[in-house]
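Predict structure. Chain length: 208.
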Amino acid sequence: MSPPPRVVRLYESTLPSGNAYKVSLLLAHLGLTADVVALDIMASPSETRRPEFLAKNPNGRIPIVELSDGSYLAESNAILCYLAEGTSFVPADSLQRARALSWMFFEQYSHEPYIAVLKFWTYWGGLSNKTDAELAVLNTRGTAALAVMSTHLASSPWFTGPSYGIADIALFAYSQSAAAVGFAVPGPVTAWLDRVRTQPGWIPIKEG
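Prediction complete.
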């Protein structure tokens, strides 16, 4: 059986993207490299909404990766699963693997839409145009996500089963910015963030 296609190119944003950072972080942990193409998502139209990019990802979003067979893979957490296959970053046990995936689904549905969105509005514009009600929803639901994480971390050091892995990477990407955009980060989450930063091969998110 031939080896699976390798990641040869990462398409990300000129602005620091937590979703793209997930991929860069796992590549760094694995000791792998890929060419990087940074696209201007603030252009008009965004470089991710132009025909040449839409041919690669019809959803018009980053990150995507180009594989050595010429195909493309979209969605940050799907890319993490692909890269981590057969490594220690994904549990071998099927139930533990499913639980890791459940945290990754949680990240995209209950976490990223609030913490990441508030980060974007705060750092790159739009915050002043939002109503108090809109901001209250982001704060309430982002705080709830951090509380769910804190409850889990009170009895387990990681989200990917017994050791650090893809669910931790997925949740770390935007949790690391939560305090900077006004969220009260619970102690167990802060301690977990510090543990992630001590993992071999860890790299910080790029600065914008």
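Summary: The chain has two domains: 7-84, 94-197.
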